[in-house]
Specification:
The protein has 78 residues and is mainly alpha-helical. The chain has helices spanning 3-13, 17-24, 28-34, 45-57; strands at 60-63, 69-72. A hairpin with a 5-residue loop joins strand 1 and strand 2 (69-72).
Length: 78
């Protein structure tokens, strides 16, 4: 996951940094440190896993083809 994907995923969900911290168990200061700039997120693997799992559980899909990005998974109506 790169920094742009992290910011975009949070924006797609309409989540604040505080909401992401609550959902992931990652501290707000850590999220604030990770989001600015460009390029890959440089942090511990377990921190990255917590962020990814929280965002994916909320419906975000990370795309890593020719151009990495994020999208919301289609939710079928039942």
């Amino acid at each position: 996951m790169n920094r742009s994907q992290l910011r975009a995923a949070r924006a797609l969900l309409g989540w604040s940094q505080e909401r992401l911290a609550d959902a992931s168990g990652v501290s707000i200061p850590t999220i604030k440190r990770l989001e600015p700039g460009e390029g890959l997120v440089q942090t511990r693997v377990d921190t990255l896993d917590k962020l990814r799992r929280a965002l994916e559980a909320a419906g975000v899909e990370f795309t890593n083809g020719g151009e990495p990005g994020v999208k919301l998974r289609r939710r079928d109506l039942m």
